[in-house]
Automatic annotation (TrEMBL):
It catalyses: L-histidine = trans-urocanate + NH4(+). It is found in: Cytoplasm. Its main location: cytoplasm. HAMAP family: His_ammonia_lyase. It is an enzyme of class 4 (lyase). Coiled coil: none annotated. InterPro entries: Aromatic_Lyase, Fumarase/histidase_N, HutH, L-Aspartase-like, Phe/His_NH3-lyase_AS. Pfam families: Lyase_aromatic (PF00221). SUPFAM superfamilies: L-aspartase-like. Contains an active site 4-methylidene-imidazol-5-one (MIO), which is formed autocatalytically by cyclization and dehydration of residues Ala-Ser-Gly. This is Histidine ammonia-lyase. The modification 2,3-didehydroalanine (Ser) is found at residue 140.
Length: 502
């Protein structure tokens, strides 16, 4: 993929997250060169400029001699590489590197072309820094994680290469790359920015979008399994409320159930007046989720295309301006919105699952077991789903309302975007488990009706039944759930025409 700095679509960032190759548009090189030349003029002028010939943070008043500027940048990187915890997933780290490449290439960071191209070469060779995932508070940039990324570029720390975890110096040598020597401002430009937080938030968004679509299918299957009505999905209802997402979800659910023989079998003469909210209010809940995810997506697309380091370099005249673009409050808010959306998708899915296993509500055999009593059926899978829902509720508390002063109170308000975004991967993993269990239960419920659902829902049933047979007598259940989770990870369900964030 050809990355055009400042003009990368959400779909392109998604492709990079999914492993697509990425290269820098050649048109960016002259822009980068002009900013590097501006830094050279600032250095030659000899006036103190933060981050170029001064110390950092609380040490900004300390003047650094020109002969020590290279050492200044190296020391900055090594001292700030102070993260802890498990490494970033490679897919997220690749996205972070591409985001940083896009930011540095807009001619406001003052780095040289070879510095940006080092990121491009590392991505091309799948040489990915080992970046501990804990240590950023989401202001002054994601300093510690980005320092680990930068340390690998200069030959320190560790990298993943050819399936191995190696020292950075060995990894660079095997990839045929020489360690980068940082010029004035370059270490700070690489460390300052929101790319760690933004990469995790985008990854959470992409996973949430995929699971949102899967949950539309499981919701429609659960409605069919319970012989629920599709009348609440009538377009006239949703036109009156005017929420775009709600109307789109209702339309999607109608389309998913269109032509279902199960639905047709009870469309006339059904004694039930209204279904439980978990069926009837799917457009209202999932539509609100869709609108929220789209709002978060718009914020993150803007952030991903922005420049977030400090100070920023302006070329005519050559000037460095200190500001606060590194503050990740927009990312923190977006991550909090995604967390709420993920929580609600799972909460509604679990209620549908609970309805299906309750014969008083679903009209199906207790716990979806052909011989209940002798068999427990889906009794404990529903408990597992409830546990995952509860765990996500705890994780969904807004990260953005917290702040803790750092750097001797120079950085006295921080966004907490980093861990607000990082938790999304665990939350979407939990959600995938919930949706997997609902899919198993919904298909099991439809099996009792001995008739076909709609074409698209039958396709989803077929995908599952290729991997997991119907449950007759109790068996070791965990492999069924794991196999279904794997189907969701590989996007095996027919979700292509369902609404999404972009």
């Amino acid at each position: 993929m050809n990355l055009i700095p400042g003009n990368v679509s959400l779909a392109q960032w998604r492709d990079i997250y999914n492993g697509a190759p990425v290269s820098l548009a050649p048109s960016a090189i002259p822009v980068i060169e002009r900013a590097a030349e501006a830094v050279a003029r600032i250095v030659a002028a000899g006036e103190p400029v933060y981050g170029i010939n001064t110390g950092f943070g609380k040490l900004a008043s300390v003047r650094i001699a020109e002969a020590d500027l290279e050492t200044l940048q190296r020391n900055l990187v090594l001292s700030h590489a102070a993260g802890v915890g498990e490494p970033m997933p490679i897919s997220v780290a690749r996205l972070m590197m591409a985001l940083k490449m896009g930011s540095l290439s807009q001619g406001a960071s003052g780095v040289r072309p070879q510095t940006v191209l080092m990121l491009e070469q590392m991505l091309a060779k799948n040489l990915i820094p080992v970046v501990p995932a804990q240590g950023s508070v989401g202001a002054s940039g994601d300093l510690a994680p980005l320092a680990h990324m930068t340390a690998a570029m200069i030959g320190h720390g560790e990298v993943f290469f050819s399936g191995q975890r190696l020292s950075a110096s060995e990894g660079l040598a095997r990839a045929g790359l020489a360690p980068l020597v940082l010029g004035p401002k370059e270490g700070l430009a690489l460390l300052n920015g929101t790319q760690f937080s933004t990469s995790y938030a985008l990854a959470g968004l992409f996973e949430a979008e995929a699971l949102f679509r899967a949950a539309l299918i499981t919701g429609a299957l659960s409605t069919d399994a319970a012989k629920g009505s599709d009348a609440p999905f009538d377009a006239r209802i949703h036109a009156l409320r005017r929420h775009k997402g709600q109307a789109e979800v209702a339309d999607a659910l109608r389309g998913l159930m269109a032509g279902s023989a199960i639905r047709a079998s009870h469309a006339i003469g059904d004694a039930r007046v209204q279904d439980p909210y978990c069926l009837r209010c799917q457009p209202q809940v999932m539509g609100a989720v869709l609108d929220l995810l789209r709002q978060a997506a718009a914020t993150l697309e803007t952030e991903a295309n922005g420049v977030t380091d400090n100070p920023l370099i302006f070329t005519e005249p050559a000037e460095a301006l200190s500001g606060g673009n590194f503050h990740a409050e927009p990312v923190a808010f977006a991550a909090d919105m995604i967390a709420m959306a993920v929580c609600e998708i799972g909460s509604l899915a679990e209620r549908r699952l609970a309805m299906l296993v309750d014969p008083a509500l679903s009209g199906l055999p207790a716990f979806l077991a052909p011989k209940p009593g002798l068999n427990s059926g889906f009794m404990i899978p529903q408990v597992t789903a409830a546990a995952l829902v509860s765990e996500n509720k705890g994780r969904a508390f807004p990260a953005s309302v917290d702040s803790i002063p750092t750097s001797a109170n120079q950085e006295d308000h921080v966004s907490m975007a980093a861990h607000g975004a990082r938790r999304l991967m665990a939350m979407t993993d939990n959600l995938r488990g919930i949706i997997a269990i609902e899919l198993l239960a919904a298909v099991q419920g439809c099996d009792f009706h001995l008739m076909a659902s709609s074409d698209i829902l039958e396709s989803a049933r077929g995908v599952l039944r290729e991997k997991v047979p119907a449950l007759d007598d109790d068996r070791y259940f965990a492999p069924d759930i794991e196999a279904t989770i794997a189907l969701l990870k590989h996007a095996a369900l027919p979700v292509q025409n369902l609404p999404g964030v972009a």
